[in-house]
Amino acid sequence: MRAGRMFRVVAANLERSRNHFMLASVGIVVGIATFAFFISLGLGVRSVVLGKIFPLDQLEVVPKSLDLAVGPLALGGAEVIDQSKVEELQAIDGVEIVYPKMRLTVPSLGIGGKEVLGADLRSEMIADGIEPDLVTEDIDGERPFRDFDDPESPDYVAPEPCETDADCGEDRYCGNPPAHKRARRNDDAEPAQVCRHYIPIIASEHVVELYNGALRRAHGFPKLNPDFVLGIKFDLKVGASMVSASAKDSIIREKGMLVGFSRKAITLGITMPIGYTKRFNVAFGKPEDAQRYHSVILVVPEKDDVAAVAKAVEDLNLEVADTGAEQAALLIAIFIAVFSLVSAVIVGIAAVNIMHVFFMLVYERQHEIGIMRAVGASRGDITTIILGEAAALGLVAGLAGILLAFGAAAGFDAISANYIPDFPYKPQSYFTFPPWLIASSLGFSVAFCVLGAFLPARRAARMQPAAVLSGH
Amino acid sequence: MIRIRGMHKSYSTGKVVTEVLRGVDLDIEDGEFISVIGPSGSGKSTLLHAVGGLDSDYKGSIEVDGKDLATLSDAELSGYRNETVGFVFQSFYLLPHLTCLENIALPAVFKRGAQMDTQAANARAKAVLEQVDLAEKADALPTMLSGGQRQRIAIARALFNEPKVMLCDEPTGNLDSKTGAAVIELFRTLNERDGITVIIVTHDPRIADSTPRKILVADGSLTEVDDADPDAEADA
User: Fold this and answer.
1) N or C: which end of chain B has fewer CB within 10 A?
2) Which residues of A touch B (CB under 8 A)?
3) Predicted complex ipTM
4) Range of the domain at B146
5) Domain ranges (residues) in chain A
6) B206 within domain boundaries
7) pLDDT in tens, A399-418
């Protein structure tokens, strides 16, 4: 009841002094808008840079490089990680899960894209293999990412014979048996054809960004929407290469289908379930190649654990690939800190202005304060009323500042969308406004207003009511 | 009962210190109707403010119902002003942005202990508004009222918490003689009917003459004025 009545006194005071308060709050509004705008910009940029370009919660572990520069060549040792090292990496504290990756160690060619680009692209393929379970969250169920040709899988279905694609239904094709090597010169006997699933392929969004940002311009191709290229099919010739010296004597003809995008896919190239790369590598190499990985992704959920995990990786005679994430994170942190400081200065100056306005109001209202004291207000009541006005002012100014920041952010995004040319990783919005930013902006605004009104409130509370009511 | 003993009060202006009350003593019984007279600057209002707990910067003691005001905390002194005394000032001191009803109910905002809900506060404010014959002005702003009406609203505010003591600092100073007389008559009614102790600081000899007891404040001391002694009143 007492609080409710006090609130009504505060509301009435705000209402009749609204012009003073509106002028006084301009600085707070600008300061909070600056704070919210630049922090949200920093967070937005960080989510793009650290979320898409340099994922900070993932460390890619590679064999320690012992490259020796000899003229134009760098001579190095065997660059693989075996199964025992993978298990040791999994045992490191702070590592949630490991994603072993196996690179395709034979050249391969990809041919396709006509249905989207109007003409087939022919390109050397760099391919990685990863465990399908590790990208489940990135792939929708419509086009599964799994190893259809693994006979040890519980879902394995032996391929049935066929003569044409029509015998195999919409999602399969009629082709060679899995990992069937045939001589390049077509001098071996044609094997019996069977219904095959397309090799499910995922790619990094980097690939689309690079295509849309640079490659398409050079070739005059249309811009691609990542959602609409899913399902695109292409031929994959493992063992073939545009560099004739690299081509193997035999090739494996496969067909692939793009089923999704994932941050866990190789940055440039294609990624398939690891069973395929194992089989291809063994087909062109030795059986032990099935246990030789080229890198391992470690997921470290807590940023605070990253340094310790990196040290443990070093102790295993491996190293963390330098992604530039640390430098990017540092630059963004500096950016956020600088603009937080700038906005703190603006809000601080505004708080001084608030203090002047409240000193003036306290002087104007000294008789009122005197009469409130005469009818029973304590010093604490007077302080509460004045700081309550300041808090309400801070709340309203903070909300206005946040709305201004939202408006400025929307304007910035609109200008970017309409007038700034596309570039790799150009985001739809540069800003992120998490709930804590809204709450801290309001808290910041209220705190500075209350701080600004503190001295005037103290002076008002210490006024001798007898003196102000009698003019002494 | 109000009991003042050895009260000293001085004001400083730069290096000049003016002692307005020099160790004064005074006893006031419950239900008395007293006027305090004296020249300007003699300390009449100072005495009133000290008794009302508005000024605690004095030496000596002021006891009200056995409680020494000088020993009370700010919160306790505020509670005393809220519940035990009611002030009426020459300049009315109504809050211009509040209606008459809201002005009268202002003490409820600062009431301690058992709280009064809005409905009860408004009902009480209306009751005292009727006591001062201004029931129809409940929703009016003070700026819409005459001086006499404003003073009656101020009296209604002072009556809101049913005080034991009314402290009136030149309550008719801004009113014409007819309105002033009506206001004094209202105080008399409150004193006689409700037993409220009324202390009026005034320059008006007619008001002073109409009270049963007169205190003269002059030269830092208090003197009981006997109507039979013409010299004492002439000093006022």
Assistant:
1) N
2) 1-2, 4-6, 8-9, 12-13, 15-16, 367-368, 370-381, 464-467, 469-470, 472
3) 0.90
4) 97-162
5) 2-53+328-470, 60-321
6) no
7) 999 999 999 999 999 998 88
